[in-house]
Design brief:
alpha+beta; two-stranded antiparallel sheet
Length: 71
């Protein structure tokens, strides 16, 4: 099992932190590369589209899962 790693990111001009297991972060990086976008831009996109009652780290995990299922 992978430990949760806390990272700081800057989205839309403000700093925030996300806590993700390494496999989720690695897959997020792959998604960003496939879409030819910066990881911060992808995280901002996820943040903009997440339900208001979902924290950002959870929204990222669900986004990665949806992407994997879609392939």
């Amino acid at each position: 099992m992978s430990a949760v790693v806390k990272r700081s990111v800057s989205i839309r001009g403000h700093r925030t932190s996300i806590s993700l297991e390494e496999p989720f972060y690695e897959e997020l990086e792959r998604i960003a590369r496939r879409r030819d976008m910066a990881i911060a831009a992808l995280i901002a996109h996820i943040d903009e589209n997440r339900p208001p009652d979902t924290n950002l780290s959870s929204a990222i995990r669900l986004y990665v899962l949806d992407d994997l299922r879609g392939r």
